[in-house]
Amino acid sequence: MKDDPYLYTNSDVLINKKDIRDAALLQKAEIEFVKARLMQGLPKGQFDYTHLKKIHRHLFQDLYTWAGQERTMRMSKGGSQFAFPEYIQKELNKLFLQLKADRLLQNLDQQSFCKKAAYYFNELNAAHPFREGNGRTNRLFFDQVAEQAGYSLAWYKTNHRDYINASIEGFQGNNEPMEKIFSAIANPLEKTLSREKDPSLSVDRTLEM
After folding, report:
1. What is the pLDDT of residues 187-205, one digit of tens each?
2. Which of 44, 63, 117, 201 has the most CB atoms at less than 10 Å from its CB?
3. Domain with 102 in it: what CATH number?
């Protein structure tokens, strides 16, 4: 990416604490470090922007000096422009205030929970506050949102293609595909034993997408 201060010169590899210059090796290291941090548990918070940044820092602190910090450069993907850096904090503070006004999605039936979760998830995706690791951070943050609302999210029940397509549609203002994703993966806590049976399954799928 041209003029990207996060990359090594003449490279598409992110500058990292281990000075790994090969993209495939960095990806492998990132997966292992993030998984190790995730197995330690996630930091708790007030379901605000600070909470989201704490999760990102926890996951990526072993590799990136900017873990937990919002990006300082403009980014786009597939012709879609993510939030400009100067507006990220303001817009996400508004979004999280709205989430709290929605009682953090508590006391909702499953259909209503999925509909609202899809909206907030897509808005967070569109903000794209970090240089790397947004998807993983967002999914894990929503695991915590879902848990306190009485649901669990089985991310392994969806696939990469459907998830990406739902994210693209969400960026265009269509939340229905992401709502279908949540409908497929959200279950009342008292009715699901997936994590207790095989916690690594949910962890791996959450990190892969």
Report:
1. 999 866 544 444 444 455 5
2. 117
3. 1.10.3290.10
User: Minimal CA–CA distance to 45: which of 153, 140, 187?
Assistant: 140
The whole domain housing 107 covers 23-208
Indicate whether 170 belongs to any domain.
yes
Would you state the structure tokens that stand for residue 174, as one six-digit string?
């269509």
Specify the 3-state DSSP secondary structure of 151.
Answer: strand
DSSP secondary-structure letter at 11? S
Q: Which residue has the tokens 């997936």?
A: 194
Please give the Cα distance from 25 to 37 (Å, whole number).
18
- Chain-centroid distance, C-alpha 107: 23
Count of structural domains, the chain: 1
Q: Can you tell me the distance from the alpha carbon of 161 to that of 199, in angstroms, rounded to the nearest whole number?
A: 23
User: What whole-number distance in Å separates Cα of residue 137 and Cα of residue 142?
Assistant: 9
Please write the tens of the pLDDT for every residue from 85-120. 999 999 999 999 999 999 999 999 999 999 999 999
Fill in the amino acid letter for 54: K
pTM, entire model: 0.91
Who contacts 124 (Cβ-Cβ below 8 Å, separation ≥6)? 52, 92, 95, 138, 141
Helices and strands, number each (H, E), in the chain: 9, 4
Quote the distance between the C-alpha of residue 90 and its chain's center.
19
Establish if 172 belongs to a structural domain.
Answer: yes
Residue 58 CA, distance from chain mean position: 13
DSSP states of 144-192: HHHHHHTEEE-GGGS-HHHHHHHHHHHHTT--HHHHHHHHHHEEEGGG-
